[in-house]
Each structure stands twice: as structure tokens, then as C-alpha cells.
Fold each of these.
Amino acid sequence: MQPLTLSLVQSHTLWHQPEANRDLFDGLLSKLPADSQLVVLPEMFSTGFSMASADIAEPMTGPTVRWMQATASRLQKVICGSVVIEEGGKIFNRFLWVPPDGVVATYDKRHRFRMADEHQFYQAGGAKVCLTLGEWRICPMICYDLRFPVWFRNRQDYDLLICVANWPQARQDAWHTLLKARAIENQAYVAGVNILGTDGNGVAYAGGSSIYAADGMVVGEAADKATVMTHRLSGDALKDLRKSFPVWQDADDFLLTE
């Protein structure tokens, strides 16, 4: 399996300022290495983690989706991150996967953060999603999803789990612990991208965007500053680990029901 070059874009975001945030990330994306294939932006990167969903939601034909499509085409890379999207009269915290050809794939956040009343303002997603980039199978999740391993149990259907987040500094230790745990239990790479600064609700964030290998070892961890962190993930190393230490063969076979 060919390597995958992954870039995590860590930054503060500007509260309820989509155009300014698009400009902000344009500047950061100008620092991408040429060989990067997959670029991951944070949760609600165009607005901040806001419950003013009716005010900030965009349609799938809106300016942020169009910006992601234009950026993916211009850079010839897959661009992904979550955006507040209105569709069919419902509002979602939606992960958008945008390849250079502009054909968007989506995952809607399943687990809404009730301590911020997210469940009152956003519709829950109904399906786990696995995407492909070359030989790599990639599963997206959004922030609070990270706490619910059963939903994202690897049934040998992904190699990389991506978590886009606004994960508060007050629970930074849990962020790293859960990312590492998801990597070990699923025998997959796990990449988490977080934000910096203080949002419009006064919640502080300390970054800590990280990549963990399938054995739980740290591949890379960002300091508390705006950065583009890029690492090359080895598909062969992943396959070798799964072959030499085949935990997956003893996994319980079960199905989720509503």
C-alpha cells in the first residue's frame, strides 16, 4: 500500500465570520508542501463551534462549499473539515470531503455535544461513512464522536480515522487519551485536528492536533500555535502490524441497532 501524506491545519477561528475564516485558511494553505495529498481543517472551521445554527448555516451550494471545491481544484488535493449546513429543512454539523474533481462526500456528526445543547440545534447523523483516497480507506468523525468507540468500531473497513474538533483546553488530556485509544483498539492511524484561542462563548482551546500510529505511538503533535503539520503515513507498516499482531481476528462480531 502506497504511503499517504497528510496535513493537519491548526488555527484559531473568527467567530461567525465565514469569509474572514476562508481568507485565514487560504493563508495557511499557502504553506502546504507540494506532496501533501489530504488536508484536514477543524470542526466548524468557517464559524467557530456555535449554537446559532439558524443564523450561520449555509446550503451545500453556499460560499464555503464552493470555496472548498475551488481550493481542492487549485491545489489538486483533497480538502476536508466540518461546516454548518442546512439541507431539507434540517441543520447538520457536516464533515465535507472535497476532492479535486469537486464531487463532495459527507458525514453528519452522530453524537451531538449536549453539554453545549448541540442536540437542540443540530440534526444527528445516521450513518458511519468510509471514504477512499488511492488505496487508503478513511473514516471521518467529529469532536464529541471521539468518546463513542462502538459507533466507529473498525470492521476492517478503514485504515485512517480522522477527527475534526473544537476540543476545549479544559479537557486536553482526554483529547490525547481518546485519540490514542481509538488508534490502538482499531489498529488504524488516528489523526485529530483541533483549534486554538478563545471562541465567542469564552471557551479556550489549546490545539494539540496529533497523529497516532496503530500501536498508539505518536507520529506527530502540534504545539499551541497556528501551523500546518504534515506527515507521511506508511501503509506497509500498518499492514505489517495487523499481520504480526492480529487483534482484529478476535474482535466481537456484533451489529448496531437503533
Note: The CA atoms of residues 195 and 216 lie 22 Å apart.
Amino acid sequence: MSKPLDRIRIVLVEPAGALNIGSISRVMKNMGLTQLVIVNPRCEVLGEEATRMAVHAIDLLEAATIVPDLPTALQGCTRVIATTARDRAIPTALETPRQALPWLVESSEPTALLFGREDTGLTNTELNYATRYIRIPVGSEYSSLNLAQAVGVCAYELQMCASNIEDNSSVVQSMPVRSDVAPVELVEGYYQQLETLLLDVGYLFPHTAPHRMEKLRRLYNRSQLSPNEVALLRGILSQFRWALDPAKLDLIARSEQ
């Protein structure tokens, strides 16, 4: 049986610093984390700088999974937390690592913790894949954390939480837990179908769709949809699509005469 930390993916989105990647590999091994996923890296992952900083964690660095996009990195995950250093235009509850990260550790399914680019962080589109959001509390004098430092803080909190669970200590949660949450890619398929239909019926317009879909995504994400619920919602959309066919509408009208 796998350990809780073995199911948590540390996902780096387009990192540009090889030194950071090496340092992250090292701190992950220090804290017992094993899954490093790198989305479209902008540096040499196995170059001299990265391997020099990894020290005795080169095996973890070599085992890192490199993927072209975020949906691929999150495939199979049922819980996703994103890190951010800034408030966003859309109201979002920001938690501390200590408040939110137990939610990942307690899951029996694959989960992910997202970190953005060193210079710009995660985009709003990328944040949409997460259900919860954390910001590391820092002093007001200098609020910017290095990427490797941020991963290190979160890795420590994950390791402490996992140790508490192994010691049968209670872990406080701020969000109800479901055991049947649909994986990210399944819910994403629903969002794509929903957006297409809403555009076709005129509820959404191309210039407003991203903003409104962000609100709808967060609404659904809070409910932690199960696979059966996603199938139900997609069935409803499919029926709407069928009914909107002009030929079907004419058939329905004739049958009611």
C-alpha cells in the first residue's frame, strides 16, 4: 500500500531556473515526496546546474515526468491545490499551507499541488483547474518567495501532516471530504461541453466566456462532483443539444399538435 505522500504530485508549470528544479528535487526527497511533474520546462531539467543542486536526489530528478501541458500533468487527480502570491480579480478564498494541505494528504487518490512560473506565477486559466488555493504568509517587507523556497515550505507542511496521520493524530479540515470525486479530466470534459453549448445559445459570448466560465468552474469545483454526477450533467447538456436541433424542434412541435 502506498504512503500518503506517494500520491501527491508536485507540479511545476514552465519553470525557467534549472537551479530551482534541482533544489526542489532535493527538498522533495528530504520530506519524503516522490512525484515531480514538470510542465513545458524552459530550462535543461537534467543539465549540470540542476543535477548539482539536486545532490543526493538525482534519482528523483531523473524520474521526473515532463509533460507538454497542465491537463496532462493532472490526469487522474481528484484534488488539486494551486499556489498564488497575488489576489485575483475573481473573489477566491486563499488559505495557508497548514490549513489546506491536509486535504491532499488524506486522499486515497492521486492529488496535485501546483506551482507557477518564477516570474508570473499561474495564469487564471491554470488556476481554474484547482479547487483550493494557498498563499504562504510572509512578512510585509519583502513578500516574494523563490520557487524552491515555496516548494520547501509546502513540502515541510505535507511531511508534518503525513507524520501526524501515521501517528493517529487528528488533522483539522476546512472542507468536507468525498470519497467519490471525479478526476480532473472528466470534469474538464463537462466544462468544455458546457461552454460550447452556452456559446451556441447566446448565454456566453466569445469576449465574456473566459470570465463567466471561471465563475461556473469555481461553483462546480466547490461541490466536488462525482463521476456519476458529471455523467448526469453531461447527459442533460446532450439532451439540450438534441432538442436544439431545428429538425428535432419541428418533430416535437408536430407531435404536440
Note: Confidence is low (pLDDT under 50) at residues 169-174.
Amino acid sequence: MANLIIDIGNTAVKASWSEGMTLGKTFRYQGEKVRSFIISLTEKEKPEIMVISSVYEISGPDEAAFRKECDKLLLLDSAHTDILKENMLPEYLTYDRAASIMAARYLFRGKGCTVVDFGTTLTIDFTDEEGRYSGGNVSLGCRTRFKALNRYSRALPLIDSPEEVPVTGDTFTTSVASGVISGIMFEIDGYIGLHPDNIVVFTGGDANYFAKRMKNSIFVVSNLVLMGLAIIADRYVKKD
């Protein structure tokens, strides 16, 4: 029987069926009916284990509804930190970050990693050669920066990430674009420079956009979070 792994993020929900470490088709949902979306995934098949990682605490009614849809439910939110402690990770980490770290440990055993997730927030996390977590930072994501500039100023337009970005802007719009995009690139270069021997792993919605602009060698793993959740699900099966 397959497992169902779900990542509830700040702006979207991503889900996938998994068999061990192998991910199946990925589903994405942006909307307010998260419970209905998750239950819709189990209409044809009930998972053995349903793993739900969430940036917010799952409510009691939602938890009860999810338990009816699977043999075993594993909630990963701020109220359930046991998995973090078992994997030698600090309890303040959100589980999407924790899952990315666990997946990087698995993929790059014996190597230190710098994991960068380009989502609503920009997160940077570091592990050493033995897989020990050595800290990380959180900043505004690319689109969040564009929205913040537009919202908190009277004159700046709301723009999207352009394909071509000059290092320095030569028009009003390119000044905004370059300020955000080049700023993030300089930021990431600085973090990479802190641990130059680390493997650099990009994930998240804007990972490819920035990877092709970097001079460093980058590994892009689009479903790093889901891969980490699949690891957690697989270990949970074996532990039981």
C-alpha cells in the first residue's frame, strides 16, 4: 500500500504518493479548501500512512477528518516536534525546512550541504559532512520582495521576474527588477562563500530561475521537501 505525503506551505499545498523513496505524480493546490483537497486525493485509494507537514498547526476537526482517510496519520507541525528531535534538528524549524535538510543528507551523504529554498520565503540551511545541522536563515522570497516594494511605496510598480535582468537597471522597471534579482544573487553568493566546500542544493518554485544565473555548480532538486517527507514516511513504516 502506498503512502501519501503532503506539504502545506505558505501559499500552496503540494502532495505526492510515494513507495519507499520513490515519488509518484505530484499534485499542487492553491486555495482555501485544503481539507477538501487532501480528502479528494484518497477517493480512489486509502494510503497506509498519510504524512502531513504544515507551516500552521492542524486543527482538531481537520486531524479527525484526515485520520478517517488512512491507516495511520503522521502530523508534522508546531505541535508535533518529535521527528525533529529524533533527527537532531532544532524544534523551531518548520517541517518543510527539516524535510529538505533530511533529503539533502540522504542524497549527499558525507558532504556538507547548503540548502536554499526559493519560495514565499527564502530559506538557507547548512549541514556539515556528518549531516549535523549548523544553522540557517530566513528572508523574503523573490515574489514577496516585489510585492513588498509595490505595497509599501507609492511609486514602484508591481512586476514579475523578467527573463533578462541587467546587473544594474537602466530604466525605472529594470531598476526594480535588478534590485531584487541581483540582490538575491549577491545574497546567495555570500552564503555559498561561508562554506565553499559544501554541495549547493536549490529547491522551490524559483530554483531553476536562479540556478541558471549562478556561477557556482548547483544541484536543483525540485521536490526536495516531498522527498524528505517520503523518507520520514518510509522510516515510520519500518519503525512500526
Note: The chain has two domains: 3-90+226-239, 109-224.
Amino acid sequence: MTDSGRAIADYWDAAASSFDEEPDHGLRAAPTREAWARRVRGWLPAEPVDVLDVGCGTGSLAELVAAGGHRVTGVDVAPRMVARARAKLAAAGLAGRFLVGDAGAPPVRAGGFDVVLSRHVVWTLPDPERALRGWVRLLRPGGRLVLIEGRWREAGEPWAPYVAGAEHLPWGGGVGADELAAAVRPLVTDLRVEPLDGDAALWGGPVHDERYALVAER
């Protein structure tokens, strides 16, 4: 790992203790939790499947996935995030497997999953297009890629790097739906974009930047 990569990993590790204080991270408020649960149900198949949550953070989405009857594996570069994810599912009486590893190159076998899910992860990666190609290879034939992303500023606003080294990230500050779709489209057979910025319940209040889910089929 490069020095900048280590600084970024250390940042997220340090953020673990307060991460769930954000409404859309901890999903502690019932309306926010149900808004995400409803979306997750819509993105995943009805029958139980194997889901990889890359950049799982403290496991809030993984918990919703497991509560829906799916088999979930989470990967995160921050050991403290992974520890909290394990504890969160255990406290809920749910099964889940969590690994410390690079979301850009998860330590799991190719072709082992029906769904690869990520939320607000692509923008943190040093080589996001390489990661996208790798994620598609993790899918079984007919598998699904679900990317929840956005651009964390309004058009024209400058982006201030959140940690030293982040200024070199290709999509630092977020990536718009059109740009992400252009990168994913050659890798998949079908693709749709679902706007999320108009659903205030997802975020604990109104947002004014671009947020969306990109759902693609292998």
C-alpha cells in the first residue's frame, strides 16, 4: 500500500467510532432505516443469494441484506469498521462474514457472488475503473452490480481533499451518474440508473447534490 493509501485507510479506521452518527450511515432513525431497507429489497433478488458488500463500513447495509435472508460477506480496509460490522450483525442475531481487505481488490474468489454491492466507495479508490472490472469478475453469470454513488458537491463547487493523498484520486469528491455509467457499460449487458437525491428519507433530510444507484447485470 502506498503512503497515500495508508493515510486514507487510517482515516477510515479512525472514523469508525463516529461513523454511525451520520443518519445514512448508522440508519438509527426508523424512517431512514426503512427507506434503505425498501431500496435494498428492490435491488436484490427475492430468493436468498450470495452478496458481497465492498467497503462495508460498519455493516449497516450488510445488516439489511442479511435481514432479508441473503448470505452476506463484507470487506473493508479499516479493521475498526470491520469489527463494528461484525458486532452489529451479531447483536441483531444475523449471520455475516467480514474481512479486512482492499475494496478495490477484495480477498474473495472470482465468480463467487450473485450481487456485488457498494455504497459511497468508488470515489475513494485510487484506480476505480480497475476495481469495477474486478468486481464484475466476482459475479456469477447473470449476477448483479449495485453501485450507490454520487457527487458530494454542487456543480462548480471546488472539492477539498479529506486527507493527504486524496487529491490524487481520479473520482475524489464523487462521480456523476453519466461518467460512472460510461465506465460500467462495456462490462455488463444491461444497466439502469435510479436517482436517489429526491428521497430525503434516505439521507435523514434533503440533499442538494447528485446521488443515485447504478444497477447493472452481468
Note: The domain at 3-217 is CATH 3.40.50.150 (Rossmann fold).
